[in-house]
Amino acid sequence: MSAAEDANALFARANTDYAAGKFSNAVAGYESLIKAGRWNSSVFYDLGNAYFRENDLGRAILNYERALALDPAQPEAQANLQLARDRARALELNASWAEQHLDLLTRDQYTWLAAIAFWAAVAIGMGLNFSKRRPIVWTFALILLGVIAAGAAAAAYQLENGRSGKDLAIIVRKNITARLATAESAGAVLFLPPGSEIKILSTRGSWDYAALPNDQKGWIPNGSAEKVRL
Amino acid sequence: MNTIGCFLSIRTGEKLRDGRGAMINLRMGQRVSRIVRLTLPVILFAFTLVLARADEPTVTAVLTSSETEVDRPVQLQIKVTGDNNATPPNDITVDGLDIRYTGQSQLVEGRNFRFTYSFVYNYTILPLKAGSFIIPSQNVRTGNGNLHTPALTLNVAPNDNGATRSGRANRPGNGSANPVDEKKILFCELVIPKTSAYVGQPIPAEIRIGLNTRVPHRLIDGATLSGQGFTTQRMQNPEQTLESINGRSYEIVTFKTAITPVKSGKLELTAKDARAVIQVPRRNGARPRSPFDLFGMDDPFNDPFFADPFAGMGEQREVKFSSDTTTVEVKPLPPNAPATFAGAVGNFSLAAEVKPKTAQVGDPLTVTANISGRGNFDRVTAPSLESERGWHTYPPSANFKADDDIGISGTKTFELVLTPNESKKAVPPLIFTYFDPLKESYVTLRSDQLAVVVQGGAAPSATPAIASGSGAPPGPSAQPARPQSQDILYQLTEHGRWDKAFTPVMMTPTFWGAQAVPLLGLLGVFGWKTRQRRLQNRERQRRAAWENETAELQRKLRRGEDPADRYFAEAMRLVQLKTALLASPNGGVEPNTVDAETAVAAFDLPEEKQLQMRELFRRSDELRYSGRPNGNGIVAEQTRRDLLELIESLS
Asked: In chain B, which residues have their Cβ closer than 8 Å to the Cβ of A214?
């Protein structure tokens, strides 16, 4: 059997376990797929459901987020994520003004748009350079495409580094409190229920420095959160 | 010449006639003077030694002061003159006085060219009690026998406190007791302003450590609070001040903290085990001799602790000291505390505000609550909403800002995040309960309602969305979707490809490979266009060169100054150029390849001009290649006119 056939079989077995109510077995099955590097949005979504049944809301939310990172338009993952967040009372990072208004396209779509507009602008620019006459229409088109390219590139950058960007992580442990310093005795900044969103900014020793949902920053112990992106 | 020898004065040319001196002849006097200059210092030195050696050893004894008071030391100095190897008394014992040898020094005195060498042996006397004391005559062994010091009297008055006895015990035989009253040098006291308190009520406390400024000292450790049944705040850096207590100057080091009883009953506190190093008077021979002290001079610079050249009389000692025990009566909190009481004890006030003032249902609102006052802020928890109905609350954050050194006075700020589940007009009041020790009762603070406008219907419950496209319809092994919003959706049994990645497309090789396509295409177009332009430029330049040459040749032909062979060659060249210019837009025709027939065809000349054209080319070739001269070399006027007419008709 090829690797893909192995993965198909493993996925089907995990689904069977889930349907039979053997959620821990289902979790193990999905996790082994992921450990083997065989994943897609459906695997993460189903794993999220399995964790939800196991009442591990932190990891459920984490895997729903992963499913949406691979397929932002997956409606099942969106719905279950919202339900899990409500149940866990998880906190979410605040979206910036730009992120709130950039949800027309995904990050990758903005990237392709920027590339296409850029090359079109370059082609028009080259044509104008070599032609004897320069109609105003083509000049306007050049400017417009340049603006589109720059805007799309900026949108892709904003989305990549924003709330749902590369540093997004989800709290998976219970009783996690972000602190002012790298010590349990340090002052508390914010209590983080499982499933809360943070952005890991840096790591020092056994502590991670993170941006928190209340627009503050604080330290959490290593392993309290897992990054959405693998 | 008559001369008289003299060794006291030298004068030339004159004779002195008194009995004290005489004149010396210059030549003889110089020799005598040299001899005297050489021998005089030797004679004087020997004379001095004789005078010095002639003195017998003597001994004296003096006190630096014959009047003193209890615990105020004086010095006893025994001076031995005339003997380098005298042995001073080892131990001088007088009841009521602590006498210790502290060192020796040398003294050289000179008078009328008489020099005396003396050794001074120093003793420190610390009076232990008031009274009049006789220090008896002491035996000093010299090379010439024993010498005796005179007896000395020391009067000791009571000290400033009226004490007639020093606080310490008499020194036993081995000399190990501390001759110094440590209580006069340092002390520790615990200051607690309250004798009773409630459980959880913070009480300020001070640990005061006093060190006598007249005694060299160094504080190693401050005291720690010892006792059961309380917690303490972390002590800040201590304050240092100078105070005068009972006429003595003390350096006071103050540690401030606060204690909070955690159980009822009698609370006993002590500030224990403060440590300091002080300098006390030195015992006999107790100071170690320096390895550099080769001559037993007992240099006072030898002291390892204070490096004080004038101290020379003490040794360092580490002492541990504590305060007395203080008792605080701790009362239990009254029963029947309100349900909202969480352990805060003190006196507080509450202020709250909400932001933003308008929102939609489901949007978060932040309520900031400030609890200010004095008490145990570590037990102050966030106030709660009077009613949470219609609100979804999140765990609050807290931040405390103290406005004193010990953290029992300040403001604690809580940020509570709420989301309304329905339209609202105000945030309910916040409730906070504490116990006031002064009023001896529980106090519940209630803030005002916080006006806010929340618009919109009730928040939608988490109804699962209908799957569209990406997921498979629920198979037999998946859970069916429920109409209610309390459960998650079904499993997906279909999946896509297994090679999905989280990597953004801009970081994949595929994306950058795709960019290579338009890049290469545009580079190709650019290169082709550039080459085309270059070619066109070259063609234009060639045409321009031909046109210039054409104009130049026409000028020359009109002038007609050239010899015939050159004239006809220029005329032929001009025709070739004109033919090439005519043909260049459509195809490259080199002028050198143009012959008569080509020119005739290019310009479509009539028959007559064709003959002229051919004649022109023939004559030119003939003159160029045959080498025959043409008369005087100048072309005839008529011939030139015909040629010019032919050429100018070409267009």
From this structure: 397, 415, 417
Is A42 in contact with B462 (Cβ distance < 8 A)? no
Q: What is the pLDDT of residue A145?
A: 95
Closest CA to A43 of A18, A54, A58, A20: A18
For B585-596, what is the mean pLDDT?
82
**Is domain B333-455 given the CATH code 2.60.40 in the classification?**
yes
CATH superfamily of B58-157: Immunoglobulins (2.60.40.10)
pLDDT on residue B465? 34
Cα–Cα distance, A194 to A176 (Å, whole number): 8
Measure the CA–CA gap between B300 and A6, rounded to whole angstroms. Answer: 92
Name the residue with tokens 């015909």. B642
- The shortest C-alpha distance from A205 to chain B (Å) reads 25
Least confident interval from A180-184, B23-27, B95-99, B290-294: B290-294
**Chain A residues touching residue B394 (CB < 8 angstroms):** 89, 91
- The pLDDT, as a whole number, for residue B560 is 84
Nearest chain B residue to A64 by CA: give it. Answer: B488
d(CA B309, CA B304): 11
Contact A47, A34 (CB under 8 A): yes
Nearest 5°: the CA angle B326, B330, B336 is 170
Q: What is the phi/psi pair of residue B258, to 5°?
A: -140, 140
Chain B residues touching residue A130 (CB < 8 angstroms)? 529, 533
Per-residue pLDDT averaged across B390-411, rounded? 87
Contact residues on chain B for A119, CB-CB shorter than 8 A? 515, 518-519, 522
ipTM of this model?
A: 0.79
Is B506 an 8 Å CB contact of chain A?
A: yes
The answer to whether the CB atoms of A216 and B397 lie below 8 A apart is yes
Nearest CA in chain B to A196: B394
Give the confidence band of B28 by pLDDT, cuts at 50, 70, 90. low
